[in-house]
């Protein structure tokens, strides 16, 4: 499933498998596109969703992406 999300008058599309991002996640992703960014949020506020949006956009632009996690339980969550 490929859903289309409107971000600040520009249509951005992210393949999120039905996950509906919150506005603050969209704002953070928009501000981070094309930049080196560090996103610091409390547990459960959607850092992985933001990373997925940015990874999706990077891959659409022909870039390679790797996501890593420090423990196997964190890998298994997603």
TrEMBL record:
Keyword terms, alphabetized: ATP-binding, Endonuclease, Helicase, Hydrolase, Nuclease, Nucleotide-binding
PANTHER family: FANCONI ANEMIA GROUP M FANCM FAMILY MEMBER (PTHR14025), FANCONI ANEMIA GROUP M PROTEIN (PTHR14025:SF20)
Bilayer-spanning residue ranges: none
Domain Helicase ATP-binding: 28-78
Matches recorded under SUPFAM superfamilies: P-loop containing nucleoside triphosphate hydrolases
Gene3D superfamilies the record matches: P-loop containing nucleotide triphosphate hydrolases (3.40.50.300)
Organism: mine drainage metagenome
Protein name: Restriction endonuclease, type I, R subunit/Type III, Res subunit
EC number(s) reported in the record: 3.1.21.5
Uppermost EC category: hydrolase
Pfam families named in the record: DEAD (PF00270)
GO molecular function: ATP binding; helicase activity; nucleic acid binding; type III site-specific deoxyribonuclease activity
Taxonomy of the source species: unclassified sequences, metagenomes, ecological metagenomes
């Amino acid at each position: 499933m490929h859903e289309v999300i409107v971000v600040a008058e520009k249509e951005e599309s992210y393949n999120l498998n039905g996950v509906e991002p919150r506005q603050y996640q969209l704002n953070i992703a928009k501000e981070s596109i094309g930049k080196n960014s560090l996103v610091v949020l409390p547990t459960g506020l959607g850092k992985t969703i933001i990373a997925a949006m940015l990874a999706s956009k990077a891959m659409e632009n022909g870039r390679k992406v790797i996501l890593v996690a420090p423990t196997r339980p964190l890998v298994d969550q997603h």
